[in-house]
Amino acid sequence: MIQLDRYDATRVKLARERVRGLGSVLVAYSGGVDSTLLLKLAMDELGDRAVAVLASSPAYPETEQQEARDLARSLGARLVEVTTSEVELDAYARNNPDRCFHCKEELFDTLAPVQQNLGLAAAADDEVARRRIYHIKGRPVGLPLILMVAAESQLEGWVHVDSRAEDLMRRWWPGPLTLILHATGGGTQGVRIPKHAVALELLRAAGPLMTTSANLHGQDPAMSPSEAEALAGVVAVLDGGVAPGGTASTVLDLTGPEPHVLREGAIPTPQLLGPPPPRAG
C-alpha cells in the first residue's frame, strides 16, 4: 500500500488541490515511486476520472512493465496501455544528456489521442482544447460551446443555479433542454445533461465537457463515427453507434427576470413554460 504520510504533508496537500481542480487526469504511469504516488492521489480525489497510462517501449523491460501493471491493479486503477517508439528517434539514439526530454516528448505526443478518446481533451477547464474545437470546426469565436455534465452537482463552480433552474433541471434532465445561466466567472453559459447512455458514461468518467456538434460550421452534423472521423483535425472518435438524430434541444435563457426561449426545439414552448396569458380585451 502507498503510505502518503511518508511524504511531505505540504506537497501532498498542494498536489491534492491541483488534481482536484482539474476534474479529470491522465497519469503518465511507470510503476515508479513518483508516478504511483501521483496516481494514488488522483484516485483518492477523482475516483475513476483518474486514468493511468502505461507506455510499452523497447527501452522499458517487460518484467518492469508487468510489475507496474500488477501494482496498478492492486490499487484498483483504470489502466490504459500505449506503445511508444522513442528508440527510433535520432535524438534519442545519439544518447545525449537531453535524451530523457525526447523520451517524454514522445510519450506526451502519444497521450494526446488517448486523452481525446477518453473525452478528456475537451475538458471544460482546458482552454487549449476549447480553441482547438473552434479551429477544427471553423466555428466563429462568438458562438459559445455548451457545457455538458452527467449530474447537476458537476455544475458547481461553473454556473449559478437558482431555484427556478433547479425546478427545470429536475423536470427535464436528462433531456433536450439547454439552459442559459449566469457563469461564475462572468457572462453566461449554456448547460445540459444529455439523454444518451454513452455520453453520460463519458461525462461521469471525464467530468464536465465543452461540446458542440461534429461538423464544419454551417454543415450538417455527423451522425455516425465514420462521418465524425472524416472531420480534419479529429484525432480519435468515441464510437457510440449511429446518432439517433431528431430535433435539436430547446434553448431557454434564464439570465433575465423572465424565462426566454432562444430556440424552440424538442420541447415546445407551451409545454416548457405553460400557455401564454390570455389577451386583454
Report on the architecture of this protein.
The strands form two sheets. A six-stranded mixed sheet has the order 7-4-6-5-8-9, with helices on one face. A three-stranded parallel sheet has the order 1-2-3, with helices on both faces. The chain has two domains: 4-117, Rossmann fold; 127-272, DHBP synthase, CATH 3.90.870. Residues 116-122 have low confidence and may be disordered. It is built from ten helices and nine strands. Helix content is 38%, strand content 15%. Helix 1 crosses helix 2. The chain has 281 residues and is an alpha/beta fold. It has helices at 9-22, 33-46, 62-75, 90-93, 99-117, 127-137, 163-172, 197-206, 225-229, 269-273; strands spanning 25-29, 50-56, 78-83, 146-148, 177-182, 188-192, 209-211, 250-253, 260-263.
In the CATH scheme, the class of the largest domain would be Alpha Beta
Q: Main β-sheet: number of strands, strand sense, barrel status?
A: 6 strands, mixed
Following the backbone from N to C, one meets helices and strands in this order, namely HEHEHEHHHEHEEHEHEEH
Q: Could you say what the CATH architecture of the largest domain is?
A: Alpha-Beta Complex
SS-based class:
alpha/beta
